[in-house]
Amino acid sequence: MAGTTSTTTPVGGPAARVAELLARRTADNAEFFVTEAERIARLCHRVAERFARGGRILAFGVTPAARSDVRHVTVEFVHPVIVGKRALPAIGLTREAGPLPLQLDLLATPEDVAIGFGAGEEAELHEGIALARARGCLTIAFDEIGAEWAFHPPGADPFVHQELVETLYHVVWELVHVFFEHRGLLEGRKERVVHDAGGSAFLYPFLAEAEAGLDDVLADVRASVLMKGVEVSELREQTIRAALPTLIPLARALRETFDAGGRLLAFGNGGSATDAMDVVADFRDPPHRWPRRPALDLTEDTALLTALANDIGEDSIFARQLISHARPEDLALAFSTSGNSRNIIRALREARRRGVRTAALVGYDGGRILAERLADYVVVVPSQNIPRIQEAQASVYHILRELVELVA
Length: 408
Fold this sequence. Notes:
52% of the residues lie in helices and 11% in strands. The chain is α/β, with parallel strands linked by helices. The chain folds into two domains: 30-227, Rossmann fold, CATH 3.40.50.10490; 229-406, 3-Layer(aba) Sandwich (Rossmann fold), CATH 3.40.50.10490. It has a five-stranded parallel beta sheet, with helices on both faces. The protein has a five-stranded parallel beta sheet with strand order 7-6-8-9-10, with helices on both faces. The radius of gyration is 22 Å and the shape is globular.
């Protein structure tokens, strides 16, 4: 899990701060999921009911960081990455298309689930939730803005808040499918507490007739919520402790990049694209009155991405942008859960050819990116569970963002 620049763990200073940040995440994660496991399980049931009625997820947010969560929710539900999970309808709404309440007014139907991302300071969030709730939507938010389901991650750190929210919507996406196996529970009617095997019921007559009480299913889902909360906490700690010899040198390299007039260039595919969006938002529009830092999101321009994919091929969508934008004083940051994405590999090689320093956040065993030393700094999240990889990666780049302001 190390890059090519360090083999020993630094002591004191930034390392002590990383330990503090990790301890805070472990404590807040445990508190949040122990407190909210029952409600999250019940929310999964309610969301499944909405999908069963033909509803959709309508995710919306105002700020750049909220935009990354909006896009992340959409890609998770529409393009499931876990075998056996079905594609479910989700639409992401951001201010690129105009005021959010106006967009919701045009699109929201009573069967939908409206999720508002943000800390609650934006008037459009309040108005959007109020409109969706009046329309009959099931509403979810992460501050007191009038939603039917309000969740409050503990602590005041906006990065930890966002990480807990990301784990929450990943867990909802993973566990909402449990209730599709018990269709008799989806309308919430007590007289239909039977497992519905659907069109294959004739193959499994006993299964189709078996009772499945809602309380029993909710108990199983609640236990799974708690288990997933523990999983991500353990994976986060394992990742960050192992990555410390790489994280601090990477933070110094980024600080040198900015001090020399360079920029961060971030890119990834799918959910990893939303990580690129988020890390760029964190540098351009940071919390805590940190300095704004120049960063480019190479996933941002849909016209450019689709033109390159159509005319040249999807393997070139990031490399071609690096040909246009990259300068030797820049640093390229790639996100890949597998470490094997062809367009990421090609982009890292192009960056190297142009004398650009490179970093990568990857999952699994690091894939080709680690094995072939395609980046100067590599942090590996040692897991094959894509949602858990992405959650741990969010902690990595959030901690990295703070370290950039700490290192000299």
